[in-house]
Specification:
3 domains; globular; 21% strand; Chloramphenicol Acetyltransferase; OB fold (Dihydrolipoamide Acetyltransferase, E2P); alpha+beta
């Protein structure tokens, strides 16, 4: 019998994924958990493991196609009792006009590999019939079966999808098609800056959108948005638009922590093969603070606040193509050594582009580390719908007054941006001062600092 493989939810709040590349072809054998395809989402690029073992009977979605969570993307013939895959029964290519109830993805529609999928009522809708099935016209596929990503891009740029040439199955407009269409418009505008910004074939919506853009002068270079940059822009805009941000800062004297790290880093590198940074100590202090102040380990949910039971700390990782935030699940259950190992693992995977959906899902609080790049003060944007984000700044030496005497100390700024709908400055400062107190309490006299 055939077992359908569906598009899983690749990360929290992800409702769709794009088949970037099939790693198996029809007729190939696939083992349980063997990589079946490479999938791109707004959050992560990941390999999709096969949920079953068997033979690839049919690939239902073509490369480059975006489908909703729960959409059937492949059929796998399961082995029979004798150890061989049984014959595949006749099956119509599924249409995802309506996502399954188990995996709701409102407004998401799937793309068949080949035309021939009838609509639910079997009406032609302007198409023709072949082998007893309704063939939908390219125009209908273009207008009604474009993915949510494509429709969102079209809406942002004021494009009419009927004006975009589709290269997908049945003339369907893919994300690459619309990005190419936008690039051509930009190129035409750059080539003739004095001319009206829209081409003769451009729609009124395109012209209106073009007039709202900045002037591009000769020698300027127009750079299109990558998927990750567009996602960051959308999410940060939403966070600032919807969450009333407030911000506060404290200064921590981490002279003892600096001495502790200096005393341990050589031994730690030799034993673990890892560079010892300050981040594991900070995350440990944050996790303990969140246990004491659970309101900061929550999310905004419209007309209510959801306090998360698990403490899953996301850490912002800087890459050339943009920030990603892998998550340290159950960070409060790890000591400093465990946190150091886990942080090194996810940071390496992030920079190598190998994060899995699990690596980026479920975050309840975020720690940003601009101090690694030399920052001393920053105002981070909340990772919506989380309630707060903490920034860790660079450690610098400066004169400090201690007992009416001047001393040279290692100090570090800690800042928190928070959603003022959920909590207030007093609660945040109590949390932040708790983090400060824990960091200031570390010193070379600690028995290994939790690293042995």
């Amino acid at each position: 019998m055939d077992q359908p493989v569906t598009m899983p939810q690749l990360g929290e709040s992800v409702t769709e994924g794009t088949i970037a590349r099939w790693l198996k072809a029809e007729g190939d054998e696939v083992a349980l958990d063997e990589a079946l395809a490479e999938v791109d989402t707004d959050k992560v690029n990941a390999e999709l493991p096969s949920p079953v073992a068997g033979r690839i009977e049919k690939l239902l979605v073509s490369e480059g196609t975006t489908v909703g969570v729960g959409t059937e993307i492949a059929l796998v013939a399961l082995p029979s009792e004798e150890g061989h895959a049984g014959p595949a029964p006749p099956r119509e290519n599924p249409s995802a006009d309506a996502p399954t109830e188990e995996f709701p993805a409102a407004g998401t529609e799937a793309q068949p590999v080949a035309s021939g999928a009838a609509d639910r009522n079997g009406h032609a809708n302007g198409g023709t019939r072949a082998n007893g099935h309704t063939l939908e016209s390219a125009e209908r596929l273009r207008l009604t079966r474009s993915s949510p990503v494509v429709r969102r891009l079209a809406g942002e740029y004021g494009l009419d999808l009927s004006e975009v040439e589709g290269t997908g199955a049945g003339g369907r407009v893919t994300k690459k098609d619309i990005e190419g269409h936008i690039a051509r418009i930009e190129a035409a505008r750059t080539a003739t800056p004095e001319a009206p910004p829209a081409t003769e074939r451009a729609t009124a919506a395109e012209r209106e959108a073009a007039w709202e853009r900045v002037t591009v002068y000769g020698g300027d270079r127009v750079v299109g948005l990558t998927g990750i940059r567009r996602t960051i822009a959308n999410r940060m805009s939403r966070s600032k638009r919807e969450a009333p941000h407030a911000w506060t800062m404290v200064e921590a004297d981490v002279t003892g922590l600096v001495a502790l790290r200096e005393s341990l880093k050589g031994e730690f590198a030799g034993r673990e093969g890892l560079k010892l940074t300050y981040l594991p100590f900070v995350v440990g202090a944050v996790a303990e603070g969140l246990k004491e102040h659970p309101i900061l380990n929550s999310v905004w949910d419209g007309d209510r606040i959801v306090l998360r039971r698990r403490i899953n700390v996301g850490i912002a990782v800087d890459r050339e193509d943009g920030l990603v935030v892998p998550v340290l699940h159950d960070a409060d259950e790890l000591n400093t050594l465990g946190l150091a190992r886990r942080i090194d693992h996810v940071v390496r995977r992030a920079r190598e582009g190998r994060l899995s959906p699990d690596d980026v899902s479920g975050g309840t609080f975020t720690v940003n580390n601009p101090g690694a790049l030399g920052s001393v003060v920053s105002v981070p944007i909340i990772n919506y719908p989380q309630v707060a984000i903490l920034s860790v700044e660079a450690i610098i030496k400066r004169p400090v007054i201690i007992d009416d005497a001047i001393a040279i100390r290692s100090v570090m700024n800690l800042e928190v941006s928070f959603d003022h709908r959920v909590t207030d400055g007093g609660a945040v400062l109590r949390f932040l001062n708790g983090v400060k107190r824990r960091l200031e309490g570390l010193g070379p006299d600690d028995a290994g600092g939790g690293l042995r």
